[in-house]
Amino acid sequence: MIFTTYSLTNQYDYVNNQKEFLNLVNFHTIEEESDSKRYGKSKENRPNPIVTMGLFMDADGIPLAFDIFPGNQNEQTTLKPLESKILQDFNCSEFIYCSDSGLGSAANRRFNSLGNRAYIITHSLKKMKKEDREIALNPTQFRKVGSPKFIDLRTLDETDEEVYNTIYYKEVPVVTGNMDETLIVTYSPKYKAYQRRIHARQIERAEKIISTPGRKRKGKNQNDPMRFVKKTSVTPDGEIADKQVYDIDEEQIQKEEMYDGFYAVITNLEGDVSEIIQINKQRWEIEENFRIMKTEFEARPVYVRRDDRIKAHFMTCYISLLLYRLLEKKLGDAYTASQILGTLRSMQMTLLNTASGYIPSYTRTELTDSLHKTFGFRTDYEFITKSSMRTIIKETKQIKSKES
Q: How many domains does the chain have?
């Protein structure tokens, strides 16, 4: 069974879940709903039926399970069936569920409060009640990880390299229904600088948009640069109709800047805060899993219509992702997905009929050396006879059979 753990108290198995909307389109010509293809919320805001894919992974990014749901199904309701199946199949009675706020409803948190389960869920500071948000963003009573001393964020010299790379936090007790929870708010000067750079580029784009003649319209994406633009109706002298004037909205910029550097999670764990923060950092791997499937494995768009073929398509993508992740671990996490997959695709052999054997037609690199070392054979610097190639293939199949 392929299953690894991220231990918080040497008894929890860390499991991460993420939902992703995958467009089900055939050159964008599927217009009608059928089977699991239903109209639902899509990141691209396309008016096509979609299906939804849910994916569980462990702390090392190894996929554990996936399922396909109708595009119009509330994603909050998709967690329990898939998680229950994982508990049964992997015999995991104790684990930590980590997710973004999209799957962090009170019902899902309550479900992961039962038994020895626990959760760490990202929490939106912007959506908090005003009084709670003011407490969370109050610059006093923060701590440096590993230190009991309280720190006022306003006293930090963020030009100091050590301060710049340090994460500060505060804990706020929260009572939700009958659940005792803790809101952990972190502040990072480095993260703040990153967000300020992003905002600066978005504001620059907004300025270009409003200076370009033509229609100005806000997009539906929360990161649309037009959110930094305000529209005012004015009636110039001698004219009857109002004229729309666009300007940069300084007030909106200030509202967003107050959150720069801050991040929050809500949890029922009472362990070391540094470990809770570290666990939550692993969430980037679930995003990478979806990115690899969508880009490297071309999981979408999907050029099939029947539900059984849709499931077969995503099963193929899931198995490919699993094999890739296992290979990545064997290589010591030393290479990126594009490097590994690009190298594997380029490792071609040329058959010399006159010599009854093969020669490599790819360039030897540090990565090809690592692959050969990992799997115990070489094809990169010597002539390989047909019999030797058959032996290599036979031995790799035997190794695969023993491991399974």
A: 3
Q: Give a yes or no: residue 178 inside a domain.
A: no
Cα–Cα distance for residue pair 318/158, rounded to 1 Å: 43
Structure tokens at 101: 């706020």
Tell how far CA 274 is from the center of its chain. Answer: 21
The residue range of the domain holding 316 is 1-100+283-330
**How far is it, in rounded angstroms, from Cα 39 to Cα 233?**
36
SS3 297: coil
Cα atoms in the 13 Å half-sphere on the side-chain side of 201: 6
Q: pLDDT band at 40, cuts 50/70/90?
A: low
Query: Model-level pTM greater than 0.85?
Result: no
In the chain, % of residues over pLDDT 70: 79
Contact, 272 vs 171, CB < 8 A? no
Contacts of 145 (CB under 8 A, 6+ apart): 166, 167, 168, 169, 273, 274, 277
In SS3 terms, 72-93 reads as: CCCHHHHHHHHHHHHHHHCCCC
Do 92 and 15 share a structural domain?
Answer: yes
What backbone torsions phi and psi does residue 287 show, to the nearest 5 degrees? Answer: -65, -40
Residue 64 belongs to some domain of the structure = yes
Q: Judge if 2 and 92 occupy the same domain.
A: yes
Q: Do 287 and 378 fall within a single domain?
A: no
304 and 350 fall within a common domain: no
Summarised one tens digit per residue, pLDDT across range 97-125 is: 888 887 788 888 888 888 788 899 989 99
- Residue 21 confidence (pLDDT): 34
Q: Which of 67-71, 228-232, 240-244, 255-259 has the lowest mean pLDDT?
A: 240-244
**Domain shared by 13 and 87, yes or no:** yes
Compute CA distances 29 → 66, 114, 266, 295, 312, whole Å: 27, 45, 42, 21, 21
Token output for 146: 């590993």
Q: Return d(Cα 255, Cα 387) in angstroms, integer.
A: 70
Residue 56's SS3 state is strand
Are residues 200 and 295 located together in one domain of the fold?
Answer: no
